[in-house]
Amino acid sequence: MEKKPVKIVTIGGGSSYTPELVEGFIKRYDRLPIREMWLVDVEEGREKMEIVGAMAQRMWDASPYKVKVHMTLDRREALPGADFVTTQFRVGLLNARVKDERIPLSYGMLGQETNGAGGMFKAFRTIPVILSIVEDMKELCPDAWLINFTNPSGMVTESVMRYGHWDKVVGLCNVPVGAMLDEPGAIGRDASELVYRFAGLNHFHWHRVFDIQGHEVTDQVVDAYLAGKVSGPANIPGLEFIPEQLKAVGMMPCMYHRYYYLQEEMLRHAIEEYNTIGTRAQQVKQTEAELFELYKDPNLNYKPEQLAKRGGAHYSDAACETIASIYGNTNTHIVLTTRNNGALPDLPPEVAVEVSAYVGAAGAQAVAFGPLHPAQRGWLQLMKNMELCVEEAAVTGDYGMALQAFTLNPLVPSGKTGKRVLDELLIAHKKYLPQFADTIARLEAEGVTIKDEVARSLTEQGL
Amino acid sequence: MEKKPVKIVTIGGGSSYTPELVEGFIKRYDRLPIREMWLVDVEEGREKMEIVGAMAQRMWDASPYKVKVHMTLDRREALPGADFVTTQFRVGLLNARVKDERIPLSYGMLGQETNGAGGMFKAFRTIPVILSIVEDMKELCPDAWLINFTNPSGMVTESVMRYGHWDKVVGLCNVPVGAMLDEPGAIGRDASELVYRFAGLNHFHWHRVFDIQGHEVTDQVVDAYLAGKVSGPANIPGLEFIPEQLKAVGMMPCMYHRYYYLQEEMLRHAIEEYNTIGTRAQQVKQTEAELFELYKDPNLNYKPEQLAKRGGAHYSDAACETIASIYGNTNTHIVLTTRNNGALPDLPPEVAVEVSAYVGAAGAQAVAFGPLHPAQRGWLQLMKNMELCVEEAAVTGDYGMALQAFTLNPLVPSGKTGKRVLDELLIAHKKYLPQFADTIARLEAEGVTIKDEVARSLTEQGL
Amino acid sequence: MEKKPVKIVTIGGGSSYTPELVEGFIKRYDRLPIREMWLVDVEEGREKMEIVGAMAQRMWDASPYKVKVHMTLDRREALPGADFVTTQFRVGLLNARVKDERIPLSYGMLGQETNGAGGMFKAFRTIPVILSIVEDMKELCPDAWLINFTNPSGMVTESVMRYGHWDKVVGLCNVPVGAMLDEPGAIGRDASELVYRFAGLNHFHWHRVFDIQGHEVTDQVVDAYLAGKVSGPANIPGLEFIPEQLKAVGMMPCMYHRYYYLQEEMLRHAIEEYNTIGTRAQQVKQTEAELFELYKDPNLNYKPEQLAKRGGAHYSDAACETIASIYGNTNTHIVLTTRNNGALPDLPPEVAVEVSAYVGAAGAQAVAFGPLHPAQRGWLQLMKNMELCVEEAAVTGDYGMALQAFTLNPLVPSGKTGKRVLDELLIAHKKYLPQFADTIARLEAEGVTIKDEVARSLTEQGL
Amino acid sequence: MEKKPVKIVTIGGGSSYTPELVEGFIKRYDRLPIREMWLVDVEEGREKMEIVGAMAQRMWDASPYKVKVHMTLDRREALPGADFVTTQFRVGLLNARVKDERIPLSYGMLGQETNGAGGMFKAFRTIPVILSIVEDMKELCPDAWLINFTNPSGMVTESVMRYGHWDKVVGLCNVPVGAMLDEPGAIGRDASELVYRFAGLNHFHWHRVFDIQGHEVTDQVVDAYLAGKVSGPANIPGLEFIPEQLKAVGMMPCMYHRYYYLQEEMLRHAIEEYNTIGTRAQQVKQTEAELFELYKDPNLNYKPEQLAKRGGAHYSDAACETIASIYGNTNTHIVLTTRNNGALPDLPPEVAVEVSAYVGAAGAQAVAFGPLHPAQRGWLQLMKNMELCVEEAAVTGDYGMALQAFTLNPLVPSGKTGKRVLDELLIAHKKYLPQFADTIARLEAEGVTIKDEVARSLTEQGL
Questions:
Q1: Which residues bind substrate (chains A, B, C, D) (predicted)?
Q2: Cα–Cα distance for residue pair B326/B336, rounded to 1 Å
Q3: CB B354 within 8 A of CB B198
Q4: Which chain C residues touch D384 with a CB distance below 8 Å?
Q5: What interface predicted TM-score (ipTM) does this complex get?
Q6: C360 in reach of chain B (CB within 8 A)
Q7: Closest Cα partner for C263 from D414, A248, B205?
Q8: How far apart are CA B438 and CA B424, in angstroms?
Q9: Is A256 tagged catalytic?
Q10: How many CB atoms within 10 Å of residue B50?
Q11: CA of A400 vs chain B CAs: smallest distance (Å)
Q12: pLDDT (tens digit, 9 = 90+) per residue, D199-237?
């Protein structure tokens, strides 16, 4: 039985990443024949989509393959017959991220896209939208796979399974890809000579490394990291893990672990940036603006080098590889978010985890990793339960549950200031949080407002 | 088969609490005929033991019962034939507590007896001692029960089971007793009209309350608490739980939860005390000095009222009630630390938990509480895993594991300052931490010293 | 707050046990003031109810207490305002039991009321009825407790929680009561000198015994049993457990374990009875007929001694004690079926187990028993999963699931004969199995009939 | 870093399977360069080893590869420097299997190599030997992998991990290989078009099948099986699964499940064979004798076709493929016995399971399968706990534990006859059960002997 050429629908198609996605598909066309590609976005993102869509069409046109790039603001037009739906949308665009960063930071708390208060609010905004996408998919393309790389990828993917009851979903992330690219050289090996086993949650996983002689070489990777040999964009000087603690972990953490293993330093770093060069979202907005200027060039028909600077490199590549592996049943080792099913026995089987999996026609086959030492188990269980609370609050709009999530989150010191940050963020994101409408009305009635200095700065930025 | 009158051995017999213990035994003599009582202490505590021992003898002499109070500095003299061994010792006396409080506070972290850095160090000092006591018990009184109320009671009790392989042990705490005394009046009920179910860990439990009509009245207790009606020494004005968060918990937390649900306020409060009236240990030292002055009075033969002020009221009472319940097989409801065995299915069966139990001749029968909501499960699993790391470090003296425990502990912000606090505490408690001798030597060689201001202040206090 | 006198509703009120229930209530009237008592039965049981109801009224009239016994064929008349609903009904009366026994035995398989094919069919008939009772209770007496002693008590009680979503339910059994009455004397102790801990499932539990000195004396009980000193109706000569196996269990099994630990002998015994004195149901029918003759005597106003012979002694007593303990909040140790909640960590928290519990106003507080050795864990998990399949088949009427239950059940050899027994029982109980109507129609169309010899014998008995 | 050519040591090298192993290595030489091959056997197997060893050398000599086949009766001579140790020995040779079959059958119980009483005794004989091999490996080749295909492969492999504390081990079986070869054609597909997921225990697993379009096609496989289209040696006419039960399982069972899903028919079939053509061991002995006659032919230098008839085809092939996958880090999908680690969350993480795994340089990466329905979970948990009891008895020689294993085993009706079978087998295998020496002496003193007819028949066969 022959497999048919595939139809891809990309929600949030106006993203600056789309060219990377197109490049990934072109590179894999032999394994993954694309029939048509649909970009979907909302009115707010129309202009960006039109720019990047034209650029995407130029890339295909410059390739040996004849693929039509469609664009629409109505996802129900795009979905029928889709084989794979990729999601890379950002509810409220980068402007929302600016608020996620500035409001917590104005109270001396970490403001970050996927961690702390900001990460929880990104989940609050995104989960209702992904669930409505899933409802459309049930009706219009019930056999399609949903390939999510909208952050916070773990919680968004888990919500699709838990509340959307949709199992054909995986969540992707570029962090493991980066580690597997950076580390081998640092220990004098080629990637093909090493075997990786990842386990944990999205942006909160550890990994062990073996060589093809079957010896564990995790210690060598740790030593190379401590010696400053592991490069990669994430390695901020002065923000290295504490050697004794790292060695006692017995596994290599991901770079996001610094928010939890180096809380003090990471917070200080974020506050410094906030007070000097601006938060990450502000930097990214600048980079994006430059990228779209490039994309407008009617002669540009390949992914520009500047996109790598944007961060998030390999994200789309991971997505393309996953799609090709499912389509071609290649059983490729990919680290992704999928149902636990026991892979991490310290968590319930039904939750989502980010683990090493072999990906083929039957989807992601998570590798059973086995129990963790209490030192890591404590973190893992804390973070997963926090995520479950965030998702419950995102779906129900229950204020008490949102407060529980804030209380559990290790990057939000519990107490009145934490509650204040929650309240201000609710007000700041009012437009994208219909599930919290009653609470927001109450807060407004109580006179809660965003801190003056932040409000002023947001106004200056036109947000 | 008649039961014989019992022999009690109290380790840390020089404690100011001993009169409460004696009072508790006198009150229950009908149910619990005491044959002899042995107080054991170390050379450092000899003077206090002699004072309190004489006082204890006067209390018995003033009672209708003829009980001899023995005193010894050699616990192996006391243990043979013991039926119950109670432990209320404090390694390094209150002076050690002063350090547990001041060193973290000098870096802006919570310094506290059973929580945060201080609590972990109390475990590091205490666990090796309790394990050596257990070794003596195996030889000298293999049928005795160990009734531990040395803090951190949960970790100390768990270590007895996990590393001492001694199952006849329970850990006691006065916090649940206090709640069950304070709350009924606050909701207009008599204690006899309410049924309590506790579950969690020592100093980290929640409870639900039912009336004898079978209706859950936890909400009424929560409302009464929020209305300021629950009195009790622990209810510090301005440090109330956040109402919305508390209501979403669905259970009543214990007062120590404020360190975790109100991190910001509790830390600020501790720093204020540190800068004004002194830390808690300093206050307690003062109270103790006054108490021992009273105890010296050869006419005093009853527990003086001032003892209540000392804090920790009901501790000894809980111990006496537990002993009487085991002896008399009364199946009394007591909240204590015992092996989980599934009572909290979110934790492994073999760990220690603090739960409602029915106590009789076969020991503590923990009540199966059932699974918790993720909001509480996250906290529970985090804290238990942190405890397991603390105990492992206490037993092995592994520095990396100590650092893991510090990293997991929510009251220690991870990073270089946290590590510095660990290092200074190791040096400060050198005398009582033989298992960490190599690490301490290394730190000293590296020139780590206690912060000047703290060192000066400790010197001034003669510590 | 005073508690009001209670209203009891007994479904299956025409049972010959009702006098025991009345006797139990009279005995406990001081602790449990009864306001009114309603007997409910179906048309088929009207005559028996009228006889036993009159008798019950005479018993109350002969007591110092003024209690009115009401009778009705409409449970919706009885339920409003009920405090406790007890269920002791038997769908299809004893005639159905005759079929449960004879049909399997005609194929050389065990026919028994609560075990094997018969037990599963009793569940199939009973579960839909108990669920409809629960629906009425939700509407008419939403605060009432359901005290189930309809067999198979474990599965019926579990279905109430699992499919009826009704948590105020306990299941009772007389087997643990019997053990706790018989065994102490056998080891030269008084019941008050021993502490029992039971764990397992209904008719499939083990127990450990301790003396009030705190020593485990389970071995003494096992030895006394092996020496023939444990009396009790269940101790059939020649059907003793194998000593070496029993000693390796490390706990005392219940008498129903003989069906599983002595499969060969128990089956042989059942076939002998079948071929000689008749099955148990036939014997019980005879006893019952005699009892109802006695009950007709207008001068009889106390429980006649002959009732004890009926088997099932203590059943009603256990129920009365449970009701009195809930009402009086006495925290009495009672062995009953309740939600696991972790008490047996080898089973999921949400299933029903039969364990030691302390019963008071908040219901049954199951004691956490801890993990079992694989030798017992294997049996426990097998039996619980079999029960879950039986319940699923009972609720859905799914034939394949019924077959799975038969396949898992250790007393039904898997294969075509087992399937044949399933098919014949479906046909034989057609009237009481509406959920299987389609399957039964199919079987009838395929010409499945009950074996001639059995059909003839059933006809002779007028069934 | 180059990998060196490998040294293979085969314990039980005199097996008639050895030529299949050699063939498998020759076929894969490009991927798996063999340096040397050692056959190890015991004195009893010396003659067979010499025949098959010469044959193996001829096979290598006829290949393009220069590999020396060494033979020894001293495994300590062979082990140093081994890369892979394969185990295919049979303690007591086929003669022991004859007893495992005839003694149970003489009492009307299933006698079988890996199931029932026979399977348990094969474990009793084998486990102490494999543990002594592991001890030698720790000393002589601590980096080697142990590739076990000695039956009962699941229990033997689990014992290596659990009691030998050796983790570099996998257990192999030919049953899954057979299913994956037979089934695709039966549903009109090519093997390359299907994705298999297996889960369970050795000789007790289920599988699900998906096509490369991502649709589950397990139902098609089940239908093809029911239509008689799945060929394979194991498909005995008249012993098909019951259709309704099979469909309700929702997964395809393995052929050994017939012992549990069709107990009645399988037992009848075994008894028929016993009474007519002889037990399986007797048939195999005949086949083996013929095979060794062939092997003696100095011109035979390829695997003769007759070996396929021997049963157990693909066993060695699975071993060669596993070794090549580890060596070449190919992440091949292989179904094998490995540590659970959560792959089947219904079992503890530390036990062994037989599941789909991806095999590479870091060993077997088991795929997390997720929870089973109670109908299968009950069987799985029963069988695993039975296995744990068997292994405990095998290691400790505890008679009570052996009796527990017999009681749990669904193919041994519990009771006195079951115990008798245990006792006779202990006596019959006395020579190979040193751990049970005391028990056997006691039984002999009590006059236990093997049933006359069996003893006579064994004598006739010279056993």
A1: 97, 151
A2: 13
A3: yes
A4: 374, 378
A5: 0.95
A6: yes
A7: D414
A8: 15
A9: yes
A10: 15
A11: 5
A12: 999 999 999 999 998 899 999 999 999 999 987 555 566
